[in-house]
Queue: 2 jobs
Job 1
Amino acid sequence: MALRGVIKSLQMRLYLFMQPLVGVLWTVLKVTNVLCALCVVGVVVYGLGFRQEALFAELITPFRWIYFLSLTEFLVLVVGDVFGLQPSRVWYLKLLAALLLLFVGISWLLPPSVAEQFVMFEWLSNPYLLFALVSAQAVINLSVFVTRSLHSRLNPTWIFVGSFVLLILVGTGLLMLPRSTTHSIRFIDALFTAVSAVCVTGLSTVDVLSTFTIMGQSVIAILIQLGGIGIMTFTSFFGLFFAGRHLGQNKMLIKDLVDPEKGIGQIFKTLWSIIWVTFVLEGVGAYLIFVSIGGQSWHDVGFAVFHAISAFCNAGFSIAPNGLMCESLFDNYWLHLVVALLVVLGGLGFPIIFNLGKWMLHGCRNLFRRLFGKKKRPFYIPHLLASNTLIVLTVTLVLLVGGTVVFYTTEYYNLLADKSLGGKLVTAFFMSVTPRTAGFNTFDVSQMMPMTVLWMIVFMWIGASPMSTGGGVKTTTIGIALLNVWHTLRGRDHIEIRHRRIAETTVNRAFIIIFVSLLVIVVGLMCLAWFEPHVPLSALLFEVVSAFSTVGLSMNLTPQLCDASRVVLIGLMFVGRVGLISILSCFIKPKRHLEYQYPSESIPIN
């Protein structure tokens, strides 16, 4: 106990001695590194976009200075975190990262005669590694800067909407770089593609494979990834990881942006869970896609990674010629099943995935206890499966089974006529999955029967689940609305699920979303009908719902639209992804809570 007290006293004295010096040095380095990060991003974008290979060779020495500046700031933060009175829970990870980065920096200072004797030092001297590390440091520094810039007085909706706008503008600029395209494209086409990628829609006015180079396709994949799980998820994660102890006043705002239901202390854990679950599922999906196509080259690896990201994020983009309808893929049913599984997982939503994982872990623990434990009684956790999970799973299962039956029945003698029984079932299941915001298709959508088109419009409108990578009015909205109708017909004034009463605000919000979505669809349809008077109304309705619900399916109409119609679709995709309520919340100040109520009065409805 005495030794522990002495150590604690020395730690406190060291902290009090170093705190002023560390604070001043950290402030200077913070400002310098933010400016350097902006310069690095600009230089890298210019060098990659305009084929300036010689530019990088001239920047090795300046990039090394920038690297050491960023490393110094990180070391100051690590020292302040490790020797602080309240070190963070991940201080050991920061310390390990600092030591690895310091080792890399020291290897660059060694004389060439010494470095050439070791293979590791020769590998570390590769200039591409330097550019990658400096670029990563720039992204991290900018993320920390953005996270530090958030204040509790700001409206979280402004930040949420603004992050999508900024990402779209940056993506548009990157897609217009000479090295991103095989030929120059117009601004409206680049903007449309960027909006479609960030809003994980999949509609495109140009052919992705023939128009964009590998760099352009990589930009699209990054935009899909950032738009799918949210740019603020990444920036908040890096900001909290590298400067979490200094961001206590901003955690409430980050909580509102990421998951309002979680506590402040669980924000970093939630962000970390979202990121690693995303990358793990996409990695497994990419491997299964690579195996399903019999991949053998790096091109196949890129194909698998791109489609895994596009499928999990419910984007619908494809770099295959003619999409999944090409001759080598339209009957690859294993590929279809993998893509469909990724779409379903991405459309469930991260809270549902986490809740299901907790439920499965609980079941495995009880099974192990029954088989090998001394106490045979199982553990019991009340309400392990949340009501939200039950509603989402129920509605999703009904849509999947019902969609498979409907598509199998309506297209049996049409699009499914030439397929085997297994092919009919897989295709019907795939087309029950993809209309719900995914956008992949294995046949020409314009050849479907009218009844199938009608059902697909309904499925597109419903969409995926809340806090997922998909769009639409969401499965919980439809589930709550149907439950409210059922309970109203039974004479009840509220909804009950598993001995839990659903809040009245949730029911009101569900009907508001339904009404607003129908209003936006009608307005968008009227605009397209005005600009495209010669196109059938059914095709326009299909296009409008596909854009608003961020689906990406089209009856071969998108490339033929005029610029005004494309602007309408851009607005629909943005509103469908961000939400009209979120956009209106930026300009409407919420009314303060009133401590009184007026007498109620009934108004006839029917």
Job 2
Amino acid sequence: MSKSAFAEKSKADELLEGLDDNQREAVCSLSGPVRILAGAGAGKTRTITRRIAYAVKTGNWDPQKTLAVTFSVKAAGEMRKRLSALGLEDKTQINVATFHSAALRQLRMVWRDVAESPFPHVVEDAHRLAFSAAKTVTCKDDYSHMEVRDILAEINRTKVSLINPDSYAYVCERTKRVPPAGLEPDTMSQIIKNYEMSKTALNQIDFDDILLIVCHIIREFPQCAEKICKNIAYLSVDEYQDVSPLQHRLMRMWLGLKEEKAKPKKSDMPSVCVVGDPGQTIYSFAGATSWYLLDFVNEFAPISADLRLDRDYRSTPQVINYANKILKSSPLSEDYLSLVTVRENGKRISRTVYKNDFEEAASVSAKIKNLLRSGVSADDIAVLMRINAQARPVAAEFRKAQIPFQIRKNPAFDSAGYMFDADDFKLFGSGDSKENNDVNSAAARSSDTKFSLGRVTISSIHAAKGLEWKHVFLIGCSEGLIPYGFIRDAQTLEEERRLLYVGVTRAEDVLNLSYAQAKNIDGAANRRPSRFLT
């Protein structure tokens, strides 16, 4: 071995330092299909980035043919930052992107090979298009903003679930799904068709159209498929529990599996690694499913490695034991990881009952004020809740107490900044068009990844996923809030259980659970504790 080769191997071996046995095995499993089940606080991002860096530095992977996919711009940025810190300074070497960002660049690359028309524009106002479609089909023009929002969400969900509009009513019948806004299945089917026709007439596409079109191009245009897929020899997919059927289809096509049920040949197994946690599947309402994560060992059998990262480095034993109990009570408990804490004992979990929401907000505000006075940083404190509306009384009390705060709301799945990097938007249209400026403004608003120092976070649990704080106040732990509303089916109820689990595992040191017996000061005390509390 030459001196330079020996030096490179030594640098690569340094990437294995400080890893536990399971993390080390994951980093060193570089070929064939690999599944990594990674629990909350188990060092998932650290393991993924070291695995990529180790593969490149040992010469096993060509960085130019490496694609790492994650679900938000913030997560992609963090991954790039860590890869750079690990010695992969050239950010152009490895493609780290969201599904939509990666597909957009691929679509732009081959567009002139498959179409003579100009590259389509992104939908400027999907809400308006959805309203127009509903109005045209039903001859009704008094839909509320929330009804139109729900109609648009149903359109998007249908698309990512690969449900043809002509099959929509049949799917509703078989799955007992109830369309939004009081619509009948056949009517909703017509609204979906009208929405798509209107969009096409305007030469516009929405974000999920990008994935659909790339899938179509890979299937129907071999030369374009070669151009797209030749740069994807080593694929890593993070948050795999949240992929939709559409994203799953695109991933398979990237790997050269064009047929829906085709299995790779044993002699030609793709180098694909999926990472996820079934217990953190909380976006089923948007078409996500943990089925692909759970079935990966069958879909790509025989896989090279099936690993578990179940050692939690984030939270105290009190928090982890409580989180484990939440999932252990589930009828699907065998699908979930049971975390093992490595930290020393911390403070016990507090559970408090208040008379109403305003008393709860005032008490939480007072407790946080005392924490700040004792020297705790505001950045280390969060108030989490099931729905955005719960933030109002808390924010009002914070203003009274002059507590600095920031509010994080549920991420929008069709929000530009959630799916794309800022540079991607220059690919839509040309020059300084109004459409281009509008999209860039939307991206800037929705990709708020840099938070001001010294602020308490008020957040929905959905928006808090992937984050953690030393002190967490989880409010509204009552029936009707979590689980939210009147739950009719077991699948939705299970998602609510997982949502509470995600909220609990955001806490590093101290967890405070609470609920109010009534919503208003003069309201009846008709609330009871959430069935998920242990």
